Amino acid sequence: MTSTDTAHQPNREFMHHVSDGCACAVCGSDTRPLAMQVLQRSYARDASLPKGFLVTAMSVDAMRGVFPVCDQCAPLCPTCGLPAASAAVLKFKKAMKAQYGKAVCPQHGASDTLSTRLKAIFSRALKFGRN
Ligand SMILES: [Zn+2]
Ligand SMILES: [Zn+2]
Q: Superkingdom of the source (predicted)?
């Protein structure tokens, strides 16, 4: 996964919102607000689509779409304000061979200490290079 510059500029489009006739692909809830940009996948045109998958674009040989995820399965990250993947989402992502969408927290939760440490090491290395 490449780091995204937009991750720290949350866009309203990326937030959870209530969508009629749409359910969370992970837990099945159709009453909670859903985030559409957390998990995405594409399927061959003739593939049978899994439950919960929403087609957003179609080409000659493929269907692209998203798995809507509710605000309970992907709660907003307090650090960047984007939906963060819970363990249930990670499991679902793996099972569906899905990819992260445009708006998902780059994991400020569990792995936060590690990434902060890595960033510290990198910035130290950069300073070294300049001197
Ligand atoms: Zn859910
Ligand atoms: Zn975050």
A: Bacteria
What pLDDT sits at residue 39?
A: 97
pTM of the model: 0.70
Q: What's the CA-to-centroid distance between 107 and ligand 2, angstroms?
A: 6
Tell me the two tokens of residue 96.
């569906």
Contact 35, 15 (CB under 8 A): yes
In the structure, ligand 2 is a single-atom ion and the residues with CB under 5 Å from it are: 77, 79-80, 105, 108
Ligand (nearest to CA of 83): 2
Which residue numbers in the chain have pLDDT < 50? 1-9, 111-112
- Distance between CA atoms of residues 60 and 122, nearest Å: 44
Report the alpha-carbon distance of residue 47 to residue 81 in Å, rounded.
Answer: 35
- Give the 3-state secondary structure percentages of the chain, helix then strand then coil, rounded to 5: 25, 25, 50
**Alpha-carbon separation of residue 131 from 103, 117, 122, 125 (angstroms):** 37, 22, 15, 10
